[in-house]
Structure formats: structure tokens, C-alpha cells
Design brief:
Blueprint (H helix, E strand, L loop, with lengths): L1 H18 L11 H5 L11 E15 L3 E14 L9 E7 L9 E4 L3 E6 L2 E6 L5 E5 L4 E7 L8 E10 L8 E2 L6 E11 L2 E8 L5 E14 L5 E18 L17 E11 L3 E4 L4 H9 L5 H4 L6 H7 L6 H15 L1 E2 L11 H7 L1 E2 L1 H14 L3 E7 L17 E8 L2 E5 L19 E5 L5 E5 L6 E11 L5 E10 H11 L4 H11 L4 E9 L6 E10 L3 E4 L2 E4 L21 E2 L4 E10 L4 E5 L4 E4 L5 E9 L3 E10 L3 E2 L4 H16 L2 E5 L1
Parallel strand pairs: 1-11, 17-18, 24-31
Antiparallel strand pairs: 1-2, 2-9, 3-8, 4-9, 5-6, 5-9, 7-8, 10-15, 11-14, 12-15, 13-14, 15-16, 19-20, 19-22, 20-21, 22-23, 24-25, 25-27, 26-27, 28-29, 29-37, 30-36, 31-35, 32-37, 33-34, 34-35
């Protein structure tokens, strides 16, 4: 039956495309499109991209060389109020840097279409609708706001990016948070440029190519003009009926799984200049970055550290103690300026003097200080979670630097740019698959950033219940390692009152009193919370019986995995173990009728496990529960098993302890 439905849906959509084929031409908006109330495939869509077409091609200008042009034509349809945000459209482009001219973005013939009284009303974008801003030293942004957009509108946007940057093309996304009916990307590349392409995502992309002969007049190094016949490759990438990219539970960065295509320069072979190879191994990428003046040379500047290093390490002889002291000193002294970077901006000396810097400056200072103290330490290039997974070797996949110290053959990863990290416990933003350790001799090695040791959360509860179902008790929660790190980051910007308000809400509306938090400072590897509580909401009374949930207000009631299938890996961040020890005193005049039976379940490959055991006598109940997730990242192949495992845990937590009046 499912197959029949799929065929019907596909037929409807193909018929839709065929009957509206003329509407895939820019500027040819039909009344049928404007009258359409819902998307033909996804009725939940707030908006949709009717088509997106782009073309990248090269133009040779005598005296200047090749320029790249990236032409984009896009048509949107707004179905619901939430879709109005697509009227704001931005393009991020390169500022002047690394020897390239600033890219130029030009919008033209951008129009909003509406249907009023049976007539198509055209509202063009005026020049005053453009807003250009400088995001940082690397990137600019142009933002347009389309006029007269309302539910039912169709929007057309046409723009061109002119660039001298031939290292990478802009990423062409086939997939968005709204459905895409049709997407097509064409490239016309002269044979003097060879690019490697990378397709990401799970949607089918149709690719075709052909070779065409051409001739061009080149300027060469002797300032002479020469006609040179060459070929160029015309490639086309098409996709139809691309579903919306929907958020799912436990995803690291959803952009990693978006259907897209990227082009990275591999080789140039100009006449008169020979072949220049830009392709790199990971070792090549690492060495290339290390050789930058704003990286490797900065590591050799350490005289500015001498006085402070001598002061903080006086009477400290043990290497582990030195590492702790130096890490905490740099973490305390330096403040992150918000710029993730693999290169220094103002330099380590100036950053150290001012007490602020980017990730490269702060962690290169840390590395230099550790090395000066005699601790073997090297920089590690990483890509943060928001930046994306480093898929293949190139110079732009990394955006941050951390430190790797070695003591007694054990590697310890450090990031002093985050005030809440601790020795061996990185910020959660850093836990992104793998990094690249660089040594001074140019050698490099892959570093696993994913924790393989379970972080713990132990919850102890002592509670008394009266005949009216009121609970009065005490709770102690102890978090270690990444569980503690996660807690500190999540609560960093909350006042104590705001946090308690949130905690009471998260725990089902209990009332908290005498809250205390104990740790060894902002970067402690352990956090302990304790508080008293009362609640009138967590016992159900029916006639002479009281029903109690075994996990009280810590119960999980909804399975986070609701989709039928999943294509993305399941990302838990770090392996974790939760243990609950709950002691309940039942009210006088009541006896225990039934309790949930003991259970112990686990997934295939021991990805997760869950156990519950309940011991009781006349007036006391002890509940011991353990949950384990033993991997930080799980393949989508195990999605069904995990979904079933979570559902079994939730179902077990819904079973009640039953008391009855004597």
C-alpha cells in the first residue's frame, strides 16, 4: 500500500511539473502559481522554492585574467504567514583578502507578484531595498527585503556574484528548510582549471557533462598576447522534488546533511606556466597552515611569557600540576573575542598584553607557555560543530585551534578560550568528529575529538509522601566531565533565580528551596547540586489508591525519535550514564499493592542499556535505575533499534507504583 501511495504522489508531482513547465522560466509567473494554496507534495510547507537555477562561468579580461561569474535565479512561493520571512534574502560574499579583490554582488529584476481582482500585480525591488553590511574582516553581506510580500505571493530574485576567487565556488544548496520543486546548477569550466567536486546529502542529483572547444587570447608572463585553443567542460546538476530539510532530535549540525555541491580548485595548467597542483593531503593542509607567519612563527614567540610563567609555576614540579596551573592561568587571563580562527589576528604578544584574543591567539599562548614549562604540546586544527565536518583535505575546512599536551604518553586536549572547559574536557562546540595535530617538522596526525569515556550524572532522592499525595524531599545531583561542562555552558548566562525558575519548570512544576551548588570553580570537572523540594503534582489519587511514577519528576514521557526513517547520524555529543537512587517513604495507613517488575534491556552492539529494580518493605520503597548511552555518534543504520529502545524505556517509566489504604 505504501508503494502505491508513493507512485501516486510521484505521478501527481510529475504532472505538476509538466503542466507548469513554462513556469520554470524566469519572469514567467502564472496565475495558477499565484492561486495555489498549498504545496502539492508537502501541505505543511510555509513556503517553497518553485525553482532555483544557477550558473558558474569564467570570463577572461585582458590585463586582468579570469573572473568568475555566479548567476542565480530563484522563484519562491509563500503559502503561510511563517513563510513571509523568505522575503528577506541575503548573500554573504568575500571581503578583500588573501590577494583577492572584494567580490561584487549585483541584484537585478527582483520582483514580487500578487494576484488582485484576477490581475497579476508586479512590484519590483527598488535600489533602496538593498542593505550592505560588513560582517567581519573576511565576509560582507548584502540583504534585500522584497516589497509587498503577503501570503500567496510569488517572489523572483535574480543576482550575480563577480569574483576573482577561483579557489572555491560558492556552495550550491539543493535543499532548504522548505521544499524545492526544481534545482539546477551549471558550470562552464575552461580546461586550464581542474576542480574536485563534492556532493553532500541524501537526495538524488542527476549529473551530466560534455566537452566543448573554444579559443582564447591569453596574456603570459612575457606580457605578450597569444591565441590558445582550449576546451571547457560544461556540467549540469539537477534535482527534482527535494523535501524540506527538517530538524530532528540529536543532530550535530543539520547543515552537514543538506544536499549541496561544492567545488575546490585542484590543478591549473595554463599555457606557458605549466601545471600547478593545488590538491592537498591532510599533511599538506597542516604544513601549509603551519608555515603561515600568523601561525607557526607565533609559536616561537615566548619571551613575553617568562615572568608570569616563573611566578605561577614556583614550587610546582609535577608535570600534571604544572599543566593544571598553566591552563587555569591562561583561561583566567585571556578572554575570547568571539572570533574562531586558525590564524592570529593581532598576534600573540598584543593579545596577551590586552587579555583578549581569538581561538588561535589564546591557544597558541597556552601551547607556548606549556612548551616553555617543558611539557610536550602541539596545536590541533579543528572545525567547530557550527562550522561543519571536515570532509576532505583543503585549507578552509578548519576554523579553530586547540592544544594537545602529552604527559607520560597520555594525550590531553585543552581549549583555554572557553571559561567553562577543564583539563581534558573540551567545550561541546569542539566535539566535532576529528582534528589535525601539527608538529613543527610538518608531520601531522588525525586526532579523535569524540569522547570515548562516559560522563556521569548521579541523582539521589529521599522523599516522603502523605495521604493527600504531597511530596516533601531532598535531591542531590552530581555531574562529572562533559555532563558538568554541558551544565555550566547551559547555565552560564542565567541568574540564580532564572535558573531555579527553569529547573522547577523542567521538573514538572515542583517547588525548590535551599538550593546549593558546589564545584571547584568555573572550570571544575564536577558539579554538585542539592535542594529541598515539595510537590502536589506527582501523585495521582483515585478513591483509596495512590499512584506514583517510579522516576517521580524525572520521567521521560515522549520519544525523541518520531520519524519513520532517519538518514542523519544520531549525535549525543558524548557518552553518558545516568543513575537514579530514589528512596520513598509511603504515608501511614497505606500499603504497597504493586510495583513495576524489574527490567534490563540493551540495544545491539551495546549502544544503550536501561535497567530498573525496585525493592520495598512495609513503608519504604527503594528504586534503582541506570541509563547508558555508550557512543557519542551513532550510525543511522541503528535508528530503528534506538527508537525501539527509547520507547521501551518510556513505557517502563509510565508503569506505576500502587498504594492502597489499609
Amino acid at each position: 500500500m505504501k508503494h502505491v501511495k508513493a507512485v501516486v504522489v510521484l505521478f501527481i508531482f510529475l504532472f505538476y511539473l509538466k503542466s507548469n513547465a513554462q513556469n520554470l522560466e524566469y519572469g514567467n509567473v502564472s496565475k495558477e502559481e499565484l492561486l495555489e494554496k498549498v504545496h502539492p507534495i508537502d501541505s505543511t510547507a510555509a513556503a517553497a522554492i518553485i525553482f532555483k537555477k544557477a550558473k558558474t562561468y569564467f570570463v577572461y579580461e585582458r590585463g586582468n585574467g579570469f573572473y568568475l561569474y555566479h548567476d542565480f535565479k530563484i522563484r519562491f512561493k509563500v503559502y503561510k504567514t511563517k513563510g513571509l520571512k523568505w522575503a528577506d534574502f541575503s548573500v554573504i560574499y568575500l571581503n578583500k583578502r588573501e590577494g583577492f579583490e572584494e567580490e561584487i554582488v549585483k541584484f537585478s529584476n527582483c520582483i514580487t507578484y500578487n494576484l488582485e481582482n484576477g490581475e497579476i500585480i508586479v512590484t519590483p525591488l527598488r535600489n533602496e531595498g538593498n542593505l550592505k553590511t560588513n560582517l567581519n574582516k573576511y565576509w560582507n553581506q548584502t540583504l534585500i527585503t522584497m516589497p509587498n510580500v503577503k501570503v500567496g505571493s510569488v517572489i523572483e530574485i535574480n543576482y550575480t556574484v563577480k569574483s576573482r576567487n577561483n579557489v572555491r565556488f560558492p556552495v550550491f544548496n539543493f535543499q532548504y528548510e522548505i521544499p524545492v520543486n526544481y534545482a539546477e546548477y551549471q558550470t562552464d569550466i575552461p580546461e586550464v582549471f581542474i576542480y574536485k567536486t563534492l556532493l553532500t546529502g541524501y537526495n538524488k542529483i542527476e549529473a551530466t557533462s560534455k566537452i566543448v572547444k573554444e579559443a582564447e587570447s591569453f596574456s603570459h608572463k612575457y606580457n605578450q598576447q597569444s591565441d590558445f585553443p582550449y576546451k571547457y567542460q560544461m556540467a549540469s546538476y539537477k534535482a527534482v522534488n527535494i523535501p524540506a530539510l527538517k530538524e530532528e532530535a540529536y543532530v550535530d549540525n543539520i547543515k552537514n546533511y543538506r544536499s549541496s555541491i561544492q567545488h575546490e580548485l585542484e590543478t591549473t595548467r595554463f599555457p606557458f606556466d605549466g601545471v600547478v597542483d593545488y590538491s592537498m593531503t591532510w599533511d599538506g593542509v597542516a604544513k601549509n597552515i603551519f608555515d603561515y607567519n600568523s601561525f607557526g612563527r607565533e609559536l616561537n614567540k615566548d619571551n613575553y611569557l617568562d615572568a608570569d610563567l616563573k611566578t605561577i609555576t614556583t614550587n610546582v614540579t609535577n608535570e600534571q600540576d604544572k599543566l593544571e596551573v598553566i591552563f587555569k592561568f591562561v583561561q583566567s587571563k585571556m578572554t575570547f573575542d568571539g572570533d574562531y580562527s586558525i590564524l592570529t589576528d593581532k598576534g600573540v604578544k598584543k593579545a596577551y598584553k590586552e587579555g583578549t584574543g581569538n581561538t588561535a591567539e589564546i591557544n597558541l599562548i597556552l601551547i607556548a607557555m606549556l612548551k616553555s614549562a617543558g611539557i610536550k604540546t602541539n596545536p590541533v586544527l579543528i572545525s567547530t560543530v557550527d562550522h561543519g565536518v571536515p570532509v576532505y583535505p583543503n585549507r578552509t575546512v578548519f576554523n579553530s585551534v586547540i592544544a594537545a599536551a602529552e604527559i607520560d604518553g597520555k594525550q590531553i586536549l585543552l581549549d583555554a578560550s572557553n571559561k567553562y572547559s577543564s583539563v581534558g574536557i573540551l567545550p561541546l562546540e569542539d566535539l566535532n568528529w576529528t582534528g589535525r595535530l601539527i608538529k613543527e617538522d610538518g608531520e601531522s596526525q588525525e586526532i579523535n575529538l569524540v569522547p570515548d569515556k562516559n560522563s556521569n550524572e548521579n541523582i539521589n532522592i529521599v522523599v516522603a509522601i502523605d495521604a493527600q499525595g504531597k511530596m516533601v524531599g531532598q535531591t542531590r545531583i552530581r555531574k562529572t566531565d562533559y555532563a558538568a561542562q554541558s551544565f555550566r555552558e547551559q547555565t552560564a548566562l542565567l541568574t540564580n533565580d532564572k535558573y531555579l525558575e527553569k529547573l522547577e519548570s523542567d521538573l514538572g512544576g515542583i517547588l525548590i528551596d535551599d538550593y546549593k551548588q558546589v564545584n571547584d570553580g568555573a572550570n571544575s570537572a564536577t558539579v554538585i547540586e542539592s535542594f529541598k523540594f515539595t510537590s502536589n503534582k506527582h501523585c495521582e489519587i483515585i478513591a483509596d489508591e495512590i499512584y506514583i511514577n517510579p522516576l517521580l519528576f524525572f520521567s521521560s514521557t515522549q520519544n525523541p525519535f518520531v520519524l519513520e526513517k532517519r538518514q542523519m547520524p544520531i549525535y549525543f555529543g558524548y557518552p553518558k550514564t545516568e543513575k537514579y537512587n530514589i528512596n520513598i517513604e509511603i504515608p501511614k495507613g497505606y500499603k504497597i499493592v504493586s510495583v513495576p517488575q524489574p527490567i534490563k534491556i540493551s540495544t545491539v552492539n551495546s549502544i544503550g542499556s536501561f535497567s530498573m529494580n525496585i525493592i520495598y518493605d512495609n513503608d519504604k520503597i527503594q528504586i534503582v535505575i541506570a541509563k547508558e548511552l555508550n557512543l557519542a555518534i551513532v550510525s543511522p543504520d541503528f535508528y530503528e533499534a534506538l527508537k525501539e529502545f527509547f520507547q521501551k524505556m518510556i513505557d517502563k517509566q509510565k508503569e506505576k507504583i500502587v498504594l492502597t489504604k489499609i
